[in-house]
Design a protein that fits this description.
Structural class: alpha/beta
Number of helices: 7
Order of helices and strands: EHEHEEHEEHEHHH
Number of strands: 7
Shape: elongated
Largest sheet: 7 strands, mixed
CATH topology: Maf protein
CATH class: Alpha Beta
Number of domains: 1
């Protein structure tokens, strides 16, 4: 009996968090090829549309130079109303994000795009409501001093020290971390990737 060859899987992201999340369900990409895409919200663009645009753009950028492979890309957008918060790179940005999130709920959109071997692009998103406690100036200062916020959407990492700020979450925890696993697994199955076989290896 001839076994169907497993298609090559490429992760279009340099995020160690996404690699770790994929490993959690037994998936190890054949290669990691980050996509260089400017991640800025366009004028009048809804956060949900921004997540889709960026995830699909990342997938297409990498797929263009890897024909026949399955390409997985994702984008995480933290939104307060119609405004997408930045991936904080400076202490000033992190401070502004945390003050905006303090004492209120926000939405995290985890957008996932998968391009299969034929070039077809599929997309799914998870929307997760996250509520923060009211943060004191001392708490904000201490978190900024930790440096954990750097490069994180909304200026925080729910899987790290910022977990103590979260009073409620409704939706996908993995989506807030960086890759909604339920949506990702379903997209990969649709694209022809043997997710069930990978999961069996984890549970064996």
């Amino acid at each position: 009996m001839t076994r169907t060859p497993v298609p090559k899987l490429i992760l279009a992201s340099a995020s160690p968090r996404r690699l770790a999340l994929l490993a959690q369900i037994g998936i190890e990409p054949d290669s990691v090829v980050p996509a260089e895409i400017e991640e800025i919200q366009k004028r009048g663009e809804k956060p949900e549309d921004m997540a889709r645009r960026l995830a699909e753009a990342k997938a297409r950028a990498v797929a263009a130079s890897h024909p026949g492979a399955i390409v997985l890309a994702a984008d995480t957008v933290v939104a307060c109303g119609r405004r997408a918060l930045p991936k904080a790179e400076t202490e000033r940005e992190a401070d502004a994000c945390l003050k905006r999130l303090s004492g209120r709920a926000h939405m995290t959109i985890g957008g996932v795009a998968v391009i299969d071997g034929s070039g077809r692009c599929r997309y799914k998103a998870s929307l997760t409501r996250v509520k923060f406690k009211r943060l004191s100036a001392a708490e904000i200062a201490a978190y900024i001093a930790s440096g954990e916020w750097r490069g994180k959407a909304g200026g925080y990492a729910i899987q790290g020290r910022a977990a103590r700020f979260v009073s409620a979450i409704n939706g996908s925890y993995s989506g807030v971390v960086g890759l909604p696993l339920y949506e990702t697994a379903n997209l990969l199955v649709s694209a022809g990737y043997p997710v069930d076989a990978a999961l069996a290896e984890v549970t064996a």
